[in-house]
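Summary for the funding panel

The consortium committed to producing paired sequence-structure records for every protein in the target list. Below we show the first two records in order, beginning with the earlier of the two.
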Amino acid sequence: MTKPNLTTGDLKRRDILFRLGGACVAGLGLSTVAPATKPNGQREQRRSGKVFPKFAKEVSRIGWVKVVGPVAQFELADVSGTWKLPRADWYNAGDEPLRRLIKALSDLRYLRALPTPTKQESAASQIDPRKGGDGVWLTLEADDRTPLATLILAKRGEQTLVQLAGETALYEVNSVDWPSFTNPSAWLDLPKLDFAPERIATVSLARPGQGQLDIVRRPDGGFAPVGGKANPLITDIALLLGRLEFQDTRRANRLTGPTRFSHETSLKSGLVIALDGHEDEGHYWVKLRMDASQAASPEEGDRLAAQTDQWAFEIPAKSWTLLTTPTDLLLQAGP
């Protein structure tokens, strides 16, 4: 896959990886390989020390990260200094998963080799996900696709096993803090709508064919529909903006079909944030709109708009169900 010709002006992620690599150089250990004779007279290779002793010096060259597992496979690419996920329309990756990956590879050490050739060959064939195994194949490459670190990881109870590229031997390694290899979305730098309940003034929910639902703050600080009584569903709708966690993202122009709902939250500061809901291929997405025309501090809206403009974000099915529940059922919900 070819990286897009994008210019972001943001070089912080490569700088972070470079500085992290520099910090690891001082702690480098040398892997040693010593021949050992088995009872059958064959020779095996035993290793000790770091699995990738030269890796810290190569960190600044990393341009691609590729993950293949039995559950998911995905790539990350460094585009003009900003890490992105091609599978998510080249949306920005977060810093934390990359930090964890670099540190995990830098800290990875041999503990022991598996004892017999039979077990090595049998286990090796079981862990390679490209051959139907249950492990995770991971490779980090330079921009020119030169491999910098390649391995297959597998868990066996409390043990972590490693097989290196071009080898059949399996080694047990120490436990380190790996990022998620089963959830590609965990690598995305998704926006967080962490608005506290006390900041919310009013909320409205509009759906085609349904009467608009207007929710206002009560004197006791709770929420209720205009002319109606409060109930848990109304409260959930009122507080949705501060509780919603996005699960994935894609370019907004890829969505098809009509808008199924518009959920608008007016903050006490005057900023209005709207979520427009779309269903596409069994997944639920929202586009965000900002109205800072009445906001006392429009900078907050500008920052959020910069993160979300031209993007759609996947929301949980339970949030979609709540926001598409008919108005009369929402008003009839019990305490």
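The next record, for a separate protein in the list, is shown here:
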Amino acid sequence: MNGIMYLMIMLVAGGAFFLLFQNSRNRLLVHLALRRKLRPMRHELDRCKHNPAQQFELLDPIYRGVLFQLYPKVKMERSKLDELVNDELNRLIKNKRSSLWSSIVVTGRGVLALIMLSMSVVSGYVAYSETDMTSWFGPKHVVSETTALLGDTFELPRQITSSEELGMALAYHMSRFDESFQIRYVGKTNDFDETMESAWDWLEANHIYVFRLSRGGESQYRDHGGYVDLDMKLAYDMTTEESHQIAARVERIIQEMPIGLNDYEKVKYVNDFVVLNTAYNLDSTANPYTPYSILFNGEGVCEGYALTTLLLLEAAGVETRYISGEAGTELHAWNLVKLDGDWYHLDTTWNDPVPNRPGEVGYDYFLVSDATLRADHTWEEGKYPVASNNYH
């Protein structure tokens, strides 16, 4: 009986420590994302340190960008994430000493949470052994699937010596939906944290679909002097089976597209298909941020719309980009498409009437320019191609 009591105590303690670990992880994600965006702007911020208005103009896009990047990845209310990003940004921009102290505090909290969580796991295991829980439930064997929709399009570099090759290795494993994996990095190891950040930047810029389907996780690395072993544990918005179903569904949709369409007609076909077959719904039965929810449940939110549009247009042979930004005060996502050498904005979410009106398609956000979209959308314009005209 004592063993059972100890086990219950350890489970409760483990739950509390897990919450502490989650909070520390969220703070670390915010800290790293802000550092990455602040690093190239340090000199500009120093030049306008006595001009609050100019500082605000520089910092506001960073603040909004980090919010949009992390909101789908962390399990936090929007207001709490706002507060966390705001507090961490203020600490980082005060001065170098406060920035260093912030890094130490964030790292220390994470280490403390890991130590406490490890202690609870070890204690729980001891109690588990004492009470012989296997006699209650029997042995279990969990098999993790490791193949995925995009797996065949990625190759694992034979030797990983740069941030780009590290990004390629991450893309390889993430396209296979590998939940845990190890990468050996044999390049310069003097600042591996910076190398890792650059690898994530490369992944976001070159393989946005893989990047957006990941919902964060844990990483740790061991520097052996001449090389680094990186251990990753990641979570995803979809399963391997769902990715296979999406691949088959996308192929079928493109096969059903009328033969002989030009690129403009393909874009219109995809816009109409997504709008006519989807209702905007944050509370969808499947994860609303995924193409699976859009294509199989007919509901979802802007990220699901934009990723589905990206998949369909690329499968149809139209060059397409994914954009993250804001519409009004809300985080938002849409697409850029390239027709006849020029880029245009396409927002299938905002072309879909809300509340849903079956059979009705909007075109106010169909192949429009930067100038048109600026009326109610904002984004980091230097990060994406320029859309100079509305399509005529």
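Regarding this second record: The chain has a mean pLDDT of 78. The chain is about 55% helix and 15% strand.
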